[in-house]
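Teaching note: in complex prediction, the entire set of molecules is handled at once rather than each chain in isolation. The prompt given to students was simply: 'Predict the structure of this complex.' The entities are:
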Amino acid sequence: MENAVGEVQNILVLGGRSEIGVAIARELLTPSTQRVMLACRQPGESREVEASLARNGLRVESVSFDAADTASHAGFVDNIVEGSGDLDVVILAFGVLGSQEQCDDDSQSAVKIAHTNYSGAVSIAMEVAKRFRQQGHGRLIILSSVAGERTRKANYVYGSTKAGLDAFAQGLSDAMVGTGASVMIVRPGFVHSAMTTGMKAAPFSTTPEVVAKLTVKGLRAGKRIIWTPGILRWVFMVMRHLPVAIWRRMPMG
Amino acid sequence: METDFTTSRLTGWGRTSPSSARTAEVSRGDVSEFIKDSNRRGVLMRGLGRSYGDAAQNAGGVVLTLKGSAHEAVLDVDAGTVTAGAGVSLHDLLKVIVPRGFFVPVTPGTRFVTVGGAVASDIHGKNHHVEGSFGNHVRRLTLMLADGTIHEVGPDQNPSLFWATVGGMGLTGVILDVTFSLIPIETSLCTVNTIRCRNIDVLIEEMSHGDDDHRYSVAWADLLATGSRLGRSVLWRGDHTKLAELSSKDAAQALRYEPRHLASVPPIVPSFGFVNKLSSSLFNELWFRKEPRRKEGGHKSIPSYFHPLDAIGSWNRLYGAGGFLQYQFALPFGREDELRQIIEKVAVSKTASPLVVLKRFGASNPAPLSFPMPGWTLTVDIPARAEGLGSLLHIIDEMVMQSGGRHYLAKDAHTTPLAIRQGYPRLDEWIQIQRSVDPDRRWQSDLARRLELI
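The expected output is the structure of the full assembly:
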């Protein structure tokens, strides 16, 4: 359960290798936290992360989860609940950036990204939402991206999955009102992480730690949507309306 | 019978940690039907929702409110007892019993609590140092167990189940009605002595020596003052006024009881609320100064002495959308240094609102989960969004645990299962009794889940 100052007991990170997801979990840790579950494809993958979270009185576990295997999601949530009780906070942080060039060559690469980032996310979010309705509380954090705010030629497959996920998350967030549970959407800009290693940083780039700080602050204040950094909200208010001819030529890769 | 539920978002009086449950208002005869209709998330009874935290919430489960009327309460004038439905509020009961020369044996700072809640939380009041908590005055009660059977329990009748129900936070069964003793009064006034204390040491000294001469004693403390004024406070001690103390004109209406409602806080308070460092320190300064250094024998009405905040409806809204929590703990006698250290921690953090109460407790009762213990209890209201509040309270939790103290379940909205386990060494004994009457875990609450009580 969550206490009066927003401290939680159980945290589930979907995408246990996501640096942002783990950073948010880390930011949420308090003496009230009893369990962090890292869900990733191969449970062995997250060993380093597990070690980095370890502390007295806290159980850190990894659980096997395949975002693309949507048929397994219902059973996945049941098992977690059976073993660990209520889900207090679920962080939906998985996603593949992929390579736009590869997608251009092979449409199946694009389908794979779309399936994991969108269908996989929708599927598990629906299962989590169902559980939240049953338990009468819970917080789902969905990692969207500014890439979905206006897709650009450099990563429009990825961007479109985030656009779809963001729209889905807004609807889900509204649908959860009155259930005791809530959904928060996080729209980070360019984040320095393993996913973006070697890429040229976009303006207003940030780090997983900053995203995590702002996310937890937003969560405790009951926000529905947050941008990280916050200024991106205003930047994109303008970007959204730029004429296509200019947008296409923006020097952001 | 068709059971009819509404889905409601519930919080405690502090308006924090909301959760959703299927709720219904039921009469005594229908309770057994409604509890059958529960799923794995269980059932909980809720009174007037004045517990500050999540004690009267049951996320995803069923939450029932018992209808009750004070006019159906049976007053036994000769025995000095009353038998009332668990859903009856002290507010309604006082309107019936005060004009007939009786007062409730224990009242908290609000009269908007139910008789059932008073037992389940084993509430205490300003007279704890002489008369103990609510459970001490209960002669018998009727309890519906998880299987729908109805049992009479009391201090002489199935005492282990009785004492597990006193302070048991509604987790042993549904309290249906309660017989408890009353205090005979000659007037509806209290004779109150006021003493202003310049710091916590003076207050402790004063309470240690003078409290036992009075039935009621409680102090307000300024938890924003530091240094030599740390814990400066105002101590009010009182007794029910005797008829002989009144002029013949006043004596004619000695038992008049008319609680007044001054105003209600509208639901449109800005989200950041009105309680902040500035407003609180200003309030504290005025509140402290308005009291005389020492005054003996002023008369106060029952509402103004016992329930001053009840005159303002929905005062909890003043804290804004973030809500607030009421942190209350007890430390045993001999731990006055630790008490001072905790007060200093809170004072330095500048987070406390003006609602701070210090009280000297008397003996405990046999209930395993009863909060009061011989010693001191401090109660502090704090806006829930105060910066760094979580860490501050964990540090204080630790100090409370190390001093052999404990937290009050009816107020708690923050602490950990560990703190409760350490604070209530008889928790396992209680759990054993609870399991024996509820093997299928019918009774559940958010508090019980969060603190691992069941």
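Point out the following to students. DSSP finds nine helices and seven strands in chain A. The mean pLDDT of chain A is 94.
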